[in-house]
Amino acid sequence: MRDPHVEAVYFSVGSAEDISYENPEPLDFSNHLGLFSLADGLLKVIPVEDFCNGLEASQAIDGFLRSWEIEADLKQNLGMIRFSYSHADVIDRNPPPPGALHLVVGDR
User: Model confidence at 20, in pLDDT bands (50, 70, 90)?
Assistant: First the structure.
């Protein structure tokens, strides 16, 4: 039986049209959801929980990211930071044996 596992989830980082960043400092931290690393306009999250696809993982992290956006709106400027799901690194922890036929389906 297959065993898909999300190793990392990626979110594009942007802002409102009239706000831009010039080389923001990288940011690394961890919390109950996972390890977060923000650099070069991309947020990488290594989730603590086990997820089988990127969409499921991103939905679990979404509430925290919305809170981050709201805090930035209140403390800095409206639309200061926005996150949108980009992609995920998914591995199969139980791949089929060599030579076996298998179907590969992409992540949304």
Answer: low
